[in-house]
Amino acid sequence: MSGSSPVQQIQDEVTCSICLEPFKDPVILDCGHNFCQACITNYWKASGAGICPQCRQSLPEGELRPNKELKAVADRVKGLDGDCKKHGERFSLFCQEERTLICKVCRESWQHRAHRVLPIEAAAEEFKEQLVRHQNGFQHAREKRERRAAAEERKYQILLEQTEREKKEIVSEFKQVHQILTHGEKLTCNKLEGTKKDLVKARNKNTEGLLRLDNLIDEIRQKCQQQGIEVLQVRQVKNMSNTQWYLGS
Description:
The protein has six helices and six strands. It has a three-stranded antiparallel β-sheet with strand order 2-1-3. A three-stranded antiparallel β-sheet has the order 5-4-6. Helix 1 (6-13) runs parallel beside helix 5 (120-224). With 249 residues, the protein is mainly α. It has helices spanning 6-13, 37-47, 68-77, 104-108, 120-224, 228-233; strands spanning 26-28, 34-36, 65-66, 93-95, 100-102, 117-119. It has a domain at 6-164: Herpes Virus-1 (2-Layer Sandwich). The relative contact order is 0.07.
């Protein structure tokens, strides 16, 4: 670039490295490089990764900051061919207020006489210094964000480990409670099963007692139908006065 003209140097500085045209809506990445907004968006979409096409640095997609200063310079530089169309002189100066290239005749005109004007070489170097300052500023911001992200990552890791420990403790506690409830359930069911058996046994005993009483009543009814002496001759009559056994005491 050292052998090129100052105008060419400035034009190179405001040229997108993707489309090789003057910047249109330029944006600056965290790494400090500039591209047309549409160019870098399409590049990321096609590549599927947020990587700077120049330095290959990985960058978070979506964080595109407009570079208004570069846009103003690019708009001024567009269409310059190295000669002043108004006076036919070679561009040799750069007007800081108008942000445009001028010739020596333009410098003496009323339009630029009170303006701050620099030789193109000096203006190009000053512009480069501004770009470097912007690049350093964005690089510093990126490093700061990277450190903050690393600190937050450590914090997230601690919280994740703490959450996992609490999860294991809760699972263990619920497991113990489940074991206690299962044991209590078993004891209660066994007790109820024993009570059920006792109730069934008592019910069967009552049923058997009623059946014996029914049989005794039938026997008595049959004896009552016999004649007097026949009743007295039956041996079972001797025990009929004792009905306690039939009641199942």
